[in-house]
Each structure stands twice: as structure tokens, then as C-alpha cells.
Design goal:
19% strand; 233 residues; NAD-dependent protein deacylase; transferase; zinc; cytoplasm; globular; alpha/beta; Rossmann fold; 10 helices; binds adenosine-5-diphosphoribose
Amino acid sequence: MADMRNIVILTGAGISAESGIDTFRDAGGLWEQHKVEDVATPEAFERDPDLVLRFYDMRREAIQAKQPNAAHEALAKLDAAWDGELLIVTQNVDDLHERAGASRVLHMHGTHLNAWCTACDMRTKWTGPMLDRPACPECGERALRPDVVWFGEMPYEMDRIYASLRKADLFVSIGTSGAVYPAAGFVQEAREMRVRTLELNLEASMGSRWFHESRHGPATQLVPQWVDEMLGG
Ligand code: APR
């Protein structure tokens, strides 16, 4: 991989699994404990806002008690050392990449630690609960929602992601099942653009067959190994 200069890295719930954050589709995952259509759609929020806000309050609190693991730390090390272009596109709504020290991070599905005021569109860091309908610090309306992308909503910054993919030499997918588009389609887009593709995942994912190379194992082992290869260590 010596001739690789521009890298796009896609991360999913699997990279945070060893930090103790449940994935969505593994056995016992979040979507086995809760129905997507009850807690993660705009319609659910309209129908039963208390249920949705309670679910996100619980997750926001849980995430803040978790710590980045060796995989987040290895990506942060790569981010700091890499001279070429690098973008970590995460589907995760936790902030473990940032807490590990990575700075070139894009949250395509939003973040738990942001509130979005649906009255004035202000977005702000938010670590406390929302169930009690706090007032928006900007306009005073009680119209805050979690700044996360629900099913049926448009992921963030797609133009920037595709622009980075077009310039990439390497696309790496880490800890994602390949079940949710558009992220699941990045590997095919990358291949059409003649970008080398590598998957690091616990086991074969739904998209494994699209990758030039697929390595299986826990992220805390595979990611530091791969980063050492990239940095020539
Ligand atoms: N190391 C590496 N991979 C792991 C680990 C681990 N320790 N543990 C689990 N995995 C893998 C699983 O094998 C699975 O392929 O991580 C993947 C997790 O898949 P999902 O639970 O489907 O999570 P993700 O792909 O991030 O989901 C995408 O779905 O509901 C939405 O918005 C939510 O962003 C999320 C999107």
C-alpha cells in the first residue's frame, strides 16, 4: 500500500463495539431491543416524542461513560501522521473518534451530542437530557431534537464524501454490516472510480464480496495492525 496517498475510511458500530457500545444488527443489538420504526424515524418522533427522546437520552448518557478503544486510537494516530488527504466518514453517533484525538472526522448520521432546534435550525453541543423539553439557547422555543439522521432522512455532507472518494487511492470500511445505504454503496462507487478497497470487520459482512481485500477479526486487533502497515511500522 506504499503508493496510497488519499484515504477515505468508513466506520460503523463495530469499531465502537469493544468500547461497550451495542451494535445494531448483531445478536442482542439495538434493533433487537427496540423497533427501528418506534425510535428512529421522523414519524415515530411525531407520534410519540417522549418515547424517542427517552431512548436518545438513555443512549446519550451511556455513550458519555464509554472510552475510545485501540481501534479509535490507531485511526487518530494515522490521522495525525498522514500527509496525504484522509477522511474518516463515520456512521456512528458517538464521539469516540474525536475523543481518541482524530480531527478529520465527518458524522454522516449526525451525533448524539448535538441538539438541533427544529424552530430556528440552530445546532449546538448537548450533553444533558431532552425529555424535559429544554428551551433552545438561541430562540427560546422548546423544539430541540437529537441531531441524528433517522431512517427516511438524508445523511449529512454527501457531496463532501463523494468528492473525497473521487480523489481517493484507498477506501477502507471498518466495522459496518453494509446493510444501510448510501454508506453500504460506497465500496461499489469506489471500485467504479478505480479506488482500492479494503474491509476490516469481525466477520464477512453483506458487502464483503465487493472489496478487493477483506480481513476478519476484532477491530482492536485489525485496525492497529493495518495502521502500522500504512505508517511503515
Ligand atoms: N470488530 C469489528 N467489527 C465488529 C465488531 C468488532 N469488535 N463487533 C461487531 N462488528 C461488526 C459486525 O460483524 C457487523 O458487521 O460490525 C458490524 C456492525 O453492523 P451494524 O450493527 O449493522 O452497524 P452499522 O453497520 O454501523 O449500521 C449502520 O444502521 O441503524 C443504522 O444508523 C444506524 O449508523 C447505523 C447504520
